[in-house]
Write a structure and sequence with these properties.
The complex is a heterodimer of chains A (254) and B (283). Chain A is mainly α and 254 residues long. Chain A contains ten helices and no strands. Chain B has two domains: 189 residues, Rossmann fold (3-Layer(aba) Sandwich); 67 residues, no CATH class. The chains are: A mainly alpha (254), B alpha/beta (283).
Chain lengths: 254, 283
């Protein structure tokens, strides 16, 4: 095995090992009665519930619905969030006027605004997507500003010394320099978006995995509920993997 | 080496028209403590193919001068011309190498070097081929597809030099390009710069605070005063060419270093005294 393969394998094995240990610990604690099994089901029960929720609860369809909503929210975040971030970076007056508000908005419990969104968009996927998008927006805007503002002056001067136009400076210097920070913002935005998407699906009992979690919880099918939550995590893992690939494609040195 | 240091208070009498002329340039900055004159009535010129080093103590306005000549700073008095053309903003005939690491971390060595050619709109195959030539020139063959993070500090500076050379500037303007490197790497990179200059007959203007580097590389050394930065003396370095870093052990080299240090010492002391006074006032 090459040193590079070993370097990649060791963190993966450590991460997987830690997860397995945590699951085993939970199993032991619940079996020993230290954790109430009527509140937290045993991991073995959750594993046993997977087949049932997949076959009886139409998980593939619900998974795709939630993934689609998350994808739309992510695309909106990339377009609008990065766009606003660039605008606020470029127009200092706007930035000074709004940056504090954007930061304050990041900590606002926007999920509680769902009745307003229901009125505007109706009980539809649009409401869920927009709630996810709004929740993730501040992180993307703030990180885009941070990334652009953090571009080293010498790199900009190199561009200026080669007589780059403002547009060339942005696409050839600022954007690639800011990309790692912008991707951090996108990942944070996606986390907030997915939490809100599943949360709103749960609250309005509509859509994909959130609605299923609501149904299963109301039936007090706790192993099924936790199995469904695992699929939400899977959506998150897939989106993280895809953004990681995208970042490596756009900036191979990252 | 029996050459005696020659001292000249006037710019070298050039047989050909100077390529770069800095004429009566002054630059003042507004600061919270008042107006600071960074550069004060500086005038000198650089002949085609000549290597001029500008040396001065920290804070004497060397980098301000670099930015003015490079067209990155405006709002100054006097004028700068390249081949008779006034510099108003970055000029295509001037290629700049910066003190800080400036290789683009997201581009490979070849992509970095090809950058100015990409901006000029050259087709990809052509610019990659051209970039490889400059990568070879700075001795980075075998590292074409590496990213700057995979290179040493000296190699990264060579990438920056190759990138600037790829734009084929008439004047290579360098601001302490080896400032962050250790002494051995600095001497060896000096050799590389000398080889390149010899091969390309490149006109060079080096801003530095390192006396050894200035004497090793330059045909003339312009000594600046401490704030405000003025021309204190122009020293002609009449050491034989082609040179290499071996020259640093010669007697003549030592005499030039001593002579320039003699000029610089008083200025550096003044700078240090000012710094200490400022720190004491801030306490």
């Amino acid at each position: 095995m090459t040193a590079r393969a070993q370097n990649n394998l060791v963190p993966f094995a450590l991460g997987l090992g830690t997860l397995i240990c945590a699951v085993l610990l939970a199993e032991i604690l619940i079996r020993a009665g230290l954790v109430n099994r009527f509140i937290v089901p045993m991991p073995s029960q959750i594993a046993g519930a997977f087949h049932r929720v997949i076959t009886e609860e139409d998980i593939p369809h619900r998974f795709l619905v939630t993934a689609r909503e998350a994808l739309w929210a992510t695309l909106l975040l990339a377009l609008v969030g990065i766009g606003i971030g660039v605008l606020l970076y470029r127009v200092k007056l706007l930035r000074d006027a709004t940056e504090t508000w954007v930061a304050a908005f990041a900590s606002a419990p926007t999920v509680l605004m769902y009745p307003l969104f229901l009125v505007i968009f109706g009980r539809s996927e649009k409401t869920i997507i927009m709630m996810g998008f709004v929740a993730g927006l501040p992180a993307v805007i703030l990180k885009t500003i941070e990334g652009l503002a953090g571009t080293r002056k010498v790199l900009v001067n190199v561009g200026r010394s080669f007589k780059l136009t403002e547009v060339q400076l942005f696409w050839k210097i600022y954007f690639p320099a800011a990309m790692p920070t912008i991707f951090v913002g996108m990942r944070l935005g996606m986390i907030f978006a997915l939490i809100n998407i599943v949360g709103v699906e749960f609250l309005i009992n509509f859509g994909g995995l959130g609605q299923l979690i609501n149904d299963l919880a109301e039936r007090y099918d706790l192993p099924g509920t936790y199995a469904a939550i695992c699929f939400v995590i899977l959506v998150s893992v897939i989106f993280f993997f895809l953004t990681d690939r995208l970042e490596k494609w756009l900036r191979p040195a990252a | 080496m029996a050459l005696a240091p020659q001292r000249s208070d006037a710019p070298r009498a050039a047989a050909v028209a100077p390529l770069l002329v800095v004429n009566d340039v002054s630059k003042k900055f507004e600061t919270p403590d008042g107006v600071v004159t960074a550069v004060d009535h500086m005038s000198f010129d650089v002949a085609p193919g000549e290597f001029l080093a500008v040396i001065g103590p920290s804070g004497c306005g060397k980098s301000t001068l670099f930015n003015i000549i490079g067209g990155l700073l405006d709002g100054y008095d006097g004028h700068v011309t390249v081949a008779g053309e006034t510099v108003k903003g970055p000029h295509p005939s001037i290629g700049m190498v910066f003190q800080e690491e400036s290789a683009f971390p997201w581009r490979t060595v070849t992509e970095n070097v090809a950058f100015p050619l990409e901006i000029a709109g050259q087709p990809k195959a052509q610019r990659i081929e051209r970039a490889r030539h400059f990568v070879d020139l700075v001795g980075l063959r075998g590292f074409e597809n590496r990213y700057p993070a995979e290179l040493s500090g000296g190699m990264r500076q060579r990438v920056a030099i190759a990138r600037t050379l790829a734009s084929e500037p008439k004047i290579l303007l360098m601001d302490e390009p080896f400032g962050a490197l250790d002494e051995q790497t600095r001497l060896l990179l000096g050799d590389k710069v000398l080889q390149i200059q010899d091969q390309l007959k490149q006109t060079c203007l080096l801003i530095t605070h390192n006396i050894t580097e200035a004497v090793q590389l330059a045909d003339r050394v312009l000594v600046m005063t401490y704030r405000p930065g003025k021309l204190k003396r122009m020293v002609a370095i009449e050491l034989p060419r082609p040179r290499s870093s071996e020259i640093v052990s010669s007697d003549a080299f030592g005499r030039y270093v001593a002579q320039i240090w003699g000029d610089l010492r008083e200025e550096a002391s003044r700078g240090m005294h000012d710094d200490e006074t400022l720190r004491a006032a801030q306490k």
